[in-house]
Amino acid sequence: MNKTLILGAGRSALGAAKLLLRQGHRPLVSDIAEKFPEIAQEIRADGADLVIGPQTPELLTGISQLVVSPGLSPEIPILQEARRRGLPILSEIDLALKVFEGTVMGVTGTNGKSTTTTLLAHLLQELGSKAEASGNIGIAPSLLIAEDRVPEILVLELSSYQLDFSQPIRNHCSLFMSFSPDHLERHGTMENYFKAKWKLMLGTVESGRLIMPRRIVEQAHAYAVPFPKAPITQIVVDAETPYKAYGPSQVVHIDSQKGLVSGDGFPQAETLPADLSFHNQLNVVASILAVRSLVEASWKDLLRGVTTYQWLPYRFQKIGSIQGHPVFNDSKSTNVESTLVALQSMRVPALVLLGGQPKGESFAPIAAHRDRIGKLIAFGAAGPKIESDLKDLNPIVFPTLKAALDAIVGLVRQHPAPLVFSPACASFDEFKNFEERGAFFNQNLTPLLDKS
Asked: Is 53 left (phi over 0), alpha (psi -120 to 50) or beta?
């Protein structure tokens, strides 16, 4: 009997193990430490073998293929040895798609992929389709299949880490939402990072569709990546001009100031909901285009679905106001590009709160939006670098987020303006993840918010 070695014992490994067990296999799961005891307990209870400890070459004895959890480096010694032996290396996504017979839609990008994935699934569900958001968000697709919760349409959020180990994913519609510096400790260069994400595009079937902002098309040409035969829809925002694309393509325009969308596929200009932030205009338009590549639906029906969607927390989320000025929690902002997008959503200058654990990026691009910054507040490990890169903006620097929030009411009094918490940094200097950081912000600000 063929035997599979699953490296890593997290959420994706659990799904892979359950699916293999259902298929009559007994996988071996390996991790260097028991990081998720509840998952480890479930893996054992299901009947899979679990080994905790060093991942030595002996683990490969009798193994016919490996399934690798996305958080692992492609360069760890056991993977190098597996390649030397010619063993197939798969992702949990590959394992699931080997048996999934429905329609696949894939979403990637540095920012915006979680919102777009869940919005896509929601719109399809509102139209009566059996769709499920999966992949990097929600339930692993292999677990959906193993537990008989197989949807008609699988909407996959795919990180560069997942795509690193995946074969080309045969899908009907691929969306590449944004691209900016991130995960360079894994990929080494921006070009490698881009090409990891571009793997999603290469699997798009010829009768399918690629959807992406104009900037992504431009970046693809700069890196000279191959284009699949599927037609491209490029989304052009405001004054941007269309960029050449290989093969058939169409252009959709967003006027972010007027909240209008027009172009190919829209006989007349359509109005977007008035309260959408700049980046959510892009997420909504891309999702609507993707849905319409699969099913017939009117603009009115699709917008009704947008109004019933529950926006994900900590993504430019308005949590209330202080002294009449709105407060936005954008803790999901873990790089400079996402903070630039948040600033583009502001119509008046704001108090901008950023900081955390820097990723080696320059903060200087933020200065290009100085007209949207009333006062800059920095905190955490990135404070000194923010102060250096943006010295012309005279930032106020605090050692921690807590210290900054303790001073926030006084700062709003001194500089009456909206408050935008968009850190532009990782959270790991003070928090486990951006969710914990976002919850901490809300907990500390809620008592200070105006009573409605």
From this structure: left
